[in-house]
């Protein structure tokens, strides 16, 4: 049967805009200067793609409308996130605050003897695979205000980890 006789189900389906990384209610959207730059670059990329999609020919009008609606939603969400961003770039150098890169060593627990390196960043910049943890993450909250030599206890699914802070650095 020809596809011309089949109903295009996706044309009638609502466009679902993917959610950005969540912020707990009432928590400010703290970002590093780098994080704000990344958000602005992402916005520029989305706006470029939107302009391209508006002028592109040859694609199905329904599909193009859906793509534009998706891009409009992403742009609106990102504009909202940027407008609420609070850049944090001043901090005490000797204690862990937003933007700190921290080196810890596990003293007791499943991964005893292991060193970890984390940077505390905003939720949009967070990427655990790169050692970038959101300031809302349990380990970031546990480290807040700590200094070199202090101990942090983190309860995980695998048990309790006790870590000593070895170094604190700000870029």
UniProtKB/TrEMBL annotation:
Ranges of residues in domain Transcription elongation factor GreA/GreB C-terminal: 92-170
Q: A GO biological process this protein is involved in?
A: regulation of DNA-templated transcription elongation
Pfam (any one)? GreA_GreB
Q: Which GO terms describe its molecular function?
A: DNA binding; RNA polymerase binding; translation elongation factor activity
Cross-referenced SUPFAM superfamilies: FKBP-like
Keywords, sorted A to Z: Elongation factor, Protein biosynthesis
In terms of PANTHER family, this protein maps to: TRANSCRIPTION ELONGATION FACTOR GREA (PTHR30437), TRANSCRIPTION ELONGATION FACTOR GREB (PTHR30437:SF6)
Q: What is this protein called?
A: Transcription elongation factor GreAB
User: What organism is this sequence from?
Assistant: Larkinella rosea
Give the taxonomic lineage as stored in the record: Bacteria, Pseudomonadati, Bacteroidota, Cytophagia, Cytophagales
């Amino acid at each position: 049967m020809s596809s011309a006789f089949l109903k295009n189900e996706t044309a009638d389906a609502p466009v679902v805009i993917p959610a950005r990384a969540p912020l707990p209610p009432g928590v400010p959207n703290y970002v590093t200067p780098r994080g704000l730059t990344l958000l602005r670059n992402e916005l520029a990329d989305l706006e470029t793609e939107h302009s391209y999609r508006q002028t592109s020919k040859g694609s199905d009008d329904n599909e193009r409308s859906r793509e534009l609606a998706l891009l409009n939603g992403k742009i609106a969400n990102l504009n909202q996130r940027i407008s609420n961003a609070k850049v944090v770039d001043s901090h005490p150098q000797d204690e862990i605050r937003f933007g700190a890169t921290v080196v810890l060593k596990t003293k007791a627990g499943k991964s005893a003897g292991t060193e970890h390196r984390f940077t505390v960043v905003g939720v949009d910049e967070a990427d655990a695979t790169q050692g970038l943890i959101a300031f809302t993450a349990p380990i970031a909250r546990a480290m807040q205000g700590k200094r070199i030599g202090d101990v942090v206890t983190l309860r995980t699914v695998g048990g309790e980890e006790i870590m000593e802070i070895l170094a604190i650095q700000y870029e």
